[in-house]
Design a protein that fits this description.
By secondary structure, the chain is mainly beta. The chain is built from 3 helices and 13 strands. The chain is rod-shaped, with a radius of gyration of 29 Å.
């Protein structure tokens, strides 16, 4: 005859913090999702769960967590490259929200409001990702990044100044071409004296 195994999991008190409000729940549930569900709390995309001070998912103690904290995600509309994308995140800043959604920021990216802006109150973000630019100058190529900038701004960011009669192709005031290629032509002046 088979032996039946009965597992008894004792209920224990758990400290819950949801949207900044603390409450206590007595439960035998072990996973944070089940604990929150038992408390009548639904999880949504972008929500962030902390278990005993560590971000979830993380290894759980065998007896289950003693504290669960839920930070609600904020919806942000990202407008970039003619397309709109909705992002939900519980990050502290816009930059963190973009990072969580898989967008890796570069220093040359254009974003308004700035990456360090708090998510609270920020509902719309204009974002333009930088693209690689190659400046052909002095027999070599300087690689840099630019986001919808003029050729003059790209040259300044790449540390390639135009001196004297130097010029760029395309011109300084024009937008960087689609392939990201800019050529700098160095012009030198000379004085020639002839005596007759």
């Amino acid at each position: 005859q088979g032996i039946a195994v009965i597992e008894v999991r004792r209920a224990r008190p758990i400290e819950l913090e949801i949207d900044g409000k603390a409450r206590r729940l007595v439960t035998a549930a072990v996973t944070p999702e089940n604990i929150l569900a038992e408390a009548g709390v639904r999880l949504f995309p972008g929500d962030r769960v902390w278990v005993d001070g560590l971000p979830h998912p993380s290894p759980l103690p065998p007896s289950g967590p003693s504290r669960v904290r839920l930070e609600r995600g904020v919806a942000v509309n990202l407008n970039g490259a003619g397309a709109k994308q909705a992002i939900n995140s519980a990050g502290a800043t816009l930059g963190e929200a973009l990072w969580e959604s898989g967008i890796r920021l570069r220093a040359a990216d254009k974003m308004f409001p700035a990456a360090g802006t708090s998510l609270e109150g920020a509902t719309g973000v204009r974002y333009e990702a930088a693209r690689p630019v190659h400046v052909e100058v002095d027999g070599g190529v300087v690689s840099s990044w630019a986001a919808g900038e003029s050729v003059g701004q790209v040259l300044a960011n790449a540390g390639v100044p135009l001196i004297g009669l130097d010029f760029a192709m395309p011109a300084e005031t024009e937008v960087v071409p689609g392939d990201g290629s800019v050529r700098v032509v160095r012009v030198t002046e000379g004085v020639e004296l002839a005596q007759t």
